[in-house]
Amino acid sequence: MEYKFRKASHEDLSHIWEILEQAIKRRKHDGSGQWQDGYPNFAVVQNDIDNGTGYVLADEMTIVAYCAIMVNDEPAYATIEGKWLTDGDFVVYHRVAVSEKYLGRGLAHKLLEHIHGFALQHGIRSVRADTNYDNPAMLKLFEKMGYRYCGEVMFRGTPRKAFEKVLTA
């Protein structure tokens, strides 16, 4: 199956929000506190699209996954209890979610590969991300894809595990 990675549009908003709502419910069902405090919400996704930072993975016309990608734009990463691997430019991504109908097909892995490609296309070799301590699926994905644990960052008063991957061409 060939999936297309592209910038999200306003027409995609309801489909993206449906995917995120599913992911929020899955996190709750798994007993996680992540995404159980009203974040992310519809306005956050709308802001991603308005700012040109929302991206989707699509199967033909069906959106199967979503994430937000920013360059050098994560204030919480300025204060890390630990140390980043690099000091230069970095790509950061948030709000990674895969449609419930497409779970188990390796699409989160594929989405991260596209994020890595995005970074390299912009001449950036550092990719950073974080997740809750109680998100085993994302922690496993980071490990599988060669991310290194760098320390802890705080989001909305909650500690998060921070990771970085240094890309090679």
TrEMBL record:
Pfam families recorded: Acetyltransf_1
EC class (word): transferase
Keywords: Acyltransferase, Transferase
InterPro entries: Acyl_CoA_acyltransferase, Bact_Acetyltransf, GNAT_dom
EC number(s) reported in the record: 2.3.-.-
Keyword Cell membrane assigned: no
Gene Ontology MF annotations: acyltransferase activity
Listed PROSITE patterns: GNAT (PS51186)
Domain N-acetyltransferase: from-to ranges: 3-169
Name the UniProt record assigns to this protein: GNAT family N-acetyltransferase
Lineage of the organism: Bacteria, Pseudomonadati, Bacteroidota, Sphingobacteriia, Sphingobacteriales
